[in-house]
Design brief:
Rossmann fold; 13 helices; elongated
């Protein structure tokens, strides 16, 4: 059964007043509007449940503990978990210690599992320990699909009744005419391609776990037009250098290694024909949901929550060979259709 977020909270306490959200909703939404979308839906009266106030406390001042001890009916909802360097470890230890103290004093915790492990996958044993600790401490574990339960249960090993399924929200996007979008790309970003041929896009943070090198190699080999847009993930300098070497001198590949504005995002998605994904491991992908929000064709590995996607615009593959073959057919069918 798929539960609305408000319903999830009310199953914990029917008299709930406040939900304290980590990380900061507004701050995190600058790069990814997932949290603002999730809690906007929850605060909507159309949800059919009473409105619950969802706010983000300052991480250094755990007012939610004092408020609970003073009689407030509250819940802590924690998103994302993990570290990849010493600074992040200290920050995580501080946040976890506060949240666990809140749990010891009788507070209730909801944890959203976004990833099998942190994207950089460093210090895997310690990160796995934090995952298990949070799973035990949580009253509810929020996942985005049934497949996520199948993947995470052997890792977390908690009572199945803890899991609650709420699908990843779709994004509010700006659909504009393709011709206008192309004109803006050419004028403002100097991206010039043959727009009568298929144009592919890789979008989001550039990192090894996304298998972007293999996508670029396939596009180079077959002379497919590809735009790669997204900020580099810190700590993966060697991977970034490999990508830069691959695209050096290639006129069919354009890379823009920065976060982009909503306007540029709209120009990109309204100009291209399909978005390519090649995750090594995956639970849920906001970038895939974003592409589907723009009603674009997507190529995705048959893994994680992506297994549960269905539609004529979704092309699933189980290997790089199958991926390449499906891309070839897509390009051939596109050429025939254009004629």
């Amino acid at each position: 059964m798929i539960y609305e977020l408000a319903q999830l909270y009310l199953t914990i306490d029917n008299n709930i007043q406040v939900v304290y959200v980590f990380p900061d909703i507004e701050g995190a939404s600058k790069y990814n509007p997932y949290l603002s979308l999730l809690y906007k839906t929850n605060n909507s009266s159309s949800a059919g449940y009473k409105k619950i106030n969802c706010i983000s406390p300052h991480p250094l001042f755990p007012v939610f503990i004092w408020n609970r001890l003073s009689g407030e009916k509250n819940i802590v909802h924690y998103h994302w978990l993990g570290f990849s360097n010493l600074r992040e470890l200290f920050v995580l230890l501080w946040k976890i210690s506060i949240v666990l103290f809140y749990r010891i004093t009788g507070g209730r915790i909801v944890w959203t599992v976004h990833n099998i492990h942190p994207h950089k996958n460093k210090y895997s044993s310690m990160n796995r320990m934090f995952y298990k600790l949070m799973a035990v401490a949580s009253t509810r574990i929020h996942v985005h699909c049934r497949e996520a339960i199948e993947i995470m249960q052997p890792i977390l090993n908690v009572n199945l009744d803890k899991y609650y399924l709420i699908a990843h929200p779709f994004y509010n996007v700006n659909h504009i005419d393709k011709k206008i979008a192309i004109e803006n790309l050419q004028k403002n970003m100097n991206i010039s391609f043959n727009y009568d041929a298929p144009l592919f896009l890789v979008y989001g943070v550039i990192s090894a776990y996304k298998g972007i090198k293999e996508i670029i190699e396939i596009c180079c080999k077959n002379c497919y037009q590809l735009i790669v847009v997204g900020r580099f993930l810190l700590g993966e300098e060697e991977y970034i250098r490999d990508i830069q070497c691959l695209i050096s001198g290639k006129k069919n590949i354009f890379i823009y290694n920065y976060a982009v504005s909503e306007d540029v995002e709209s120009w990109l998605f309204n100009s291209i024909d399909a978005v390519l994904f090649n995750f090594k491991e995956i639970l849920t992908s906001g970038s895939v949901i974003l592409a589907l929000s723009y009603q674009k064709d997507v190529f995705v590995p048959d893994k994680g929550c992506l297994k549960e996607l269905a539609g004529d615009n979704i092309y699933k593959f189980c290997s790089l060979d199958e991926f390449e073959q499906k891309l070839k057919k897509y390009v051939n069918d596109f050429t025939v259709k254009e004629k």
